[in-house]
C-alpha cells in the first residue's frame, strides 16, 4: 500500500462524512466528544495531504511547515487529552472513571511535555518513498517517556471504557500500531495515524449503539 497526498485527502473526506453521521442526533456532551473524533482526523489527514504536496512540489514548499506543525500538534498535544477525556465523559462506572481520571492526568503531562518538545526541538518531515517520516532531535529519555505515555493514553482508555463496541475499536487500534511498527518502522507516526483515521469510522457504530442504549449505565461526566 502506498501512501500519498491522494490517500490522505481520501481519508480526510471519509472521516468528514463519518463525523457528520456520528454527530447527527447527538444530544449529550459525550456524544459530541466521541463523535467529533473522526472530524479531528479530517483535519489531521488534510494537513498531511498538504504536507505531501509541499514535499513533492517545489512550488508549494512553503506550505510544509504550517501543515506539519498542525499535524503534530493535533497528534502530540490534542490526542493525549481528548481520548481519555472523551472516554471519561461517557463513563458512569465508578472504578472505570477512576482509571480514566488517572489516564487523563497522564495525558495532560504528555501534552504539556510535547508542547515543550515541539518548541525546544523543532521537528522536520521527509518523504521516504511512499511515507512521511517525522524527525525530532529530542533527548532519549524525553523521547521514550513521551512516546510511552502517548501510547498509554491513546489505547488504554479505549479498553477501560464500557461503551458498546469500544473494545473492538481498541483492539483494532492496538493491531494497527503493531502493524505500523512492524511494516513501517521509519514512519510509524504517519502510518499509524492513517490506520487510526480509517478505524475511527467505527465510532459511528459506537455512538449510535450507545444512544440506543440510553439509560443503561452511560452518562455524561459530572
Structure, explained:
- This protein is mainly alpha-helical and 222 residues long.
- It contains nine helices and two strands, in the order H-H-H-H-H-E-E-H-H-H-H.
- Helix 7 (166-183) packs antiparallel against helix 8.
- The protein is globular, with a radius of gyration of 17 Å.
- It starts with a helix and ends in a 10-residue tail after the last helix.
- The model is unreliable at 215-222 (pLDDT under 50).
> How would you classify the helix and strand content by structural class?
mainly alpha
Mean pLDDT: 87
The DSSP helix count reads 9
| Quaternary organisation of the protein chains | single chain
The SSE string, one letter per element, is HHHHHEEHHHH
Ends: how far apart? 44 Å
Features:
mainly alpha; 2 strands; 4% strand; globular; 222 residues; single chain
Give a brief description.
With 222 residues, this protein is mainly alpha-helical. 73% of the residues lie in helices and 4% in strands. The chain has a two-stranded antiparallel sheet.
Helix-strand layout with pairing:
Elements: H1 5-23, H2 29-35, H3 37-56, H4 64-90, H5 94-120, E1 124-127, E2 132-135, H6 140-160, H7 166-183, H8 188-199, H9 203-212
Antiparallel strand pairs: 1-2
